[in-house]
Amino acid sequence: MPRFALALLTLALGLTACSGPDQLEVSSVQSTTEVVRDPGAAARAEAGAFLEQYTRGFLPLYYASALAEWDANTRIVPGDSLTPARVRAANEALAAYTGAVPTIERARALLEQRESLTDLQVRQLEAVLYSAAQNPQTVAEVVRERIAAEAAQNDALFGYTFTLDGEEVTPNEIDRRLRESEDLAEREAVWLASKEVGPTLTPGLVELQRLRNQTVQALGYDDYFTYQVSDYGMTREEMLALMRQLNDELRPLYRELHTWARYELAEAYGEEVPEYLPAHWLPNRWAQDWTALADLAEFSSGATAPGPTLDDALAQKTPEWIVEQAERFYVSLGLGEMPESFYTRSSLYPLPESAPYKKNTHASAWHLDLDNDVRSLMSVETNADWYETTHHELGHIYYYLAYTNPEVPPLLRGGANRAYHEAVGSLLGLASMQPRFLDTIGLEVEPLANPVQGLLREALNYAVFIPFSAGTMTNWEHDLYAENLPQDQWNARWWELAREYQGIVPPSADRAAPGAPFNDAATKTHINNDAAQYYDYALSNVLLFQLHDHIAREILDEDPRDTNYYGQTEVGDFLTAILSPGATVDGNELLEQTTGSGLTAQPMLDYFAPLMEWLQEQNEGREHTI
Fold first, then answer.
1. How far is CA 264 from CA 125, 248, 451, 619, in A?
2. Engineering a disulfide at 549: which of 213, 225, 251, 603 sits with its beta carbon 3.0 to 4.6 angstroms away?
């Protein structure tokens, strides 16, 4: 018996003795008999004691780190050195604990006995080692440098002041103008303003490219991209192959959307039809979401459908109503109310213009203590984008709450894999946009002239996103870390991938030239602070349609294109079965058990089949360029 296990057994017997000598005698005989009968009991006892001790030390350090990060994201003051220092101190303390050499050695030794351990113990030990690879104290100085570099990069990104025509402009205003402006000169100016932050982030990203790779290489990973992919139990080659498969399967639909957009936008702007779409023609800074283009379509009425839109209906509401209504939806499914602290501790709305500080304007959900301190960071305004985003972010919050239960150890309080979290958020965002759902909650929106109009709007969100997430982002980050892409090639490679996968080009060709002084990739938040895992979002988009198809057909007995989840507690029960196990189960096995099928893009293709027919009719005689 290993010395640690013997010490544990002695301690257990000593504690039992407090209940009296008779119980001590019985316990001693039972324990000894168990060890003789099952030699693996000692290994399980040793693993259990280690994990209990590790978790006890981990939780307060994790919470302190999360609180420091929360402060750094919700109150960004130019020149403030105290907050970044607190973030570094908290993160260094967590790193020193999770990456401690004895911890790594003990977890590895225990996993050598994995056949004797429970599945729950194996999963937790693997989580311990995965976390250690981010912070191995065998290269403690590298870890400290990386933590400092990440904090500085966050400050540079979210403390940046965007300007347009010499005046400060918010990210929300940039997004609004790209959605609404019909003036190409203005659109190009706004798009260029959104990219000005890129060069300021270059020095920090050069450092992070080096430091992230060096950190994980200390525990045997080839590079940071390989490390992040390993969380799926896959190699980087396998993940890239899966991303190519998703792109290939959805390429016919995207090709039709791309052709349709080229011709419709050219007509709207009074320009020649371009071979590739200029990025500033599109209603999103990274061309990842073209939802606003749906209004260009003409349907059976012979004109764009009149009447109030969702934006019109939401304009009569308040940002607070959007958040509270989103919670009412989840409650209607039987999932319960969020803790009151969600509202008192979250940062949900734009800062007033007079505020002496900034905040991170990228929507996110936080599980700060791996218990009930759940928060969201948003800047909710009364429009359709923020309405859907709010339902999405609350999906994360309810996922956190579901797996915060006694059956899920804190170390496994995460999604069945990372894609599940995004899939659930997007699934509930999709559900919240369905026409009958909107009618149920009292949002009066003009009925669609043709059901295909709704499908077009959704495809311009979900289908358009696949080439960006599975193609441009995934391959660029792969090259950054796995191929050590030189900095003077960053922008050229970004636009090479954007043209290949998205059929998008920058406003001027010189921007994509090797050595150009731009860093357009780094303007995307995730490149800086959620690195090398954007394929999560691609997988989640496919997964969400698979889950939605099952809910519609098998639970609600409805057409997946015309559903209403509101008030359907059976849907809540299905979601609870997916959410509550957290990471105690394998994501692929969970999908098989709950839907009867492994991951497949077919439900997504089936969902958009009527739209595909419509697009092919619209594009008859038009030239396809991708």
1. 54, 25, 20, 10
2. 603
Give, in order, the Cα–Cα distances in Å from 487 to each of 142, 224, 360, 519.
20, 17, 26, 9
Looking at residue 49, its amino acid is: A
CA–CA distance, 7 with 2 (Å, rounded to integer): 9
Inter-residue contact 291 to 283 (CB < 8 Å): yes
- Spatial distance between the Cα atoms of 543 and 538, rounded to a whole number of angstroms: 9
Is pTM beyond 0.70? Reply is yes
Tens-place pLDDT, residues 197-207: 999 999 999 99
Cα distance between residue 258 and residue 267, in whole Å: 14
Q: How many CA atoms, within 13 angstroms, populate the side-chain half-sphere of residue 539?
A: 24
The Cα 67–Cα 63 span in angstroms is: 6
- Quick check: 323 and 388 in contact, CB under 8 A? no
- Asked if residues 305 and 448 have their Cβ atoms less than 8 Å apart, the reply is yes
> Hey, which bits of 46-196 come out as E strands?
163-164, 167-168
For 179-203, the pLDDT digits (tens) are: 999 999 999 999 999 999 999 999 9
Number of other residues whose CB lies within 10 A of the CB of residue 592: 13
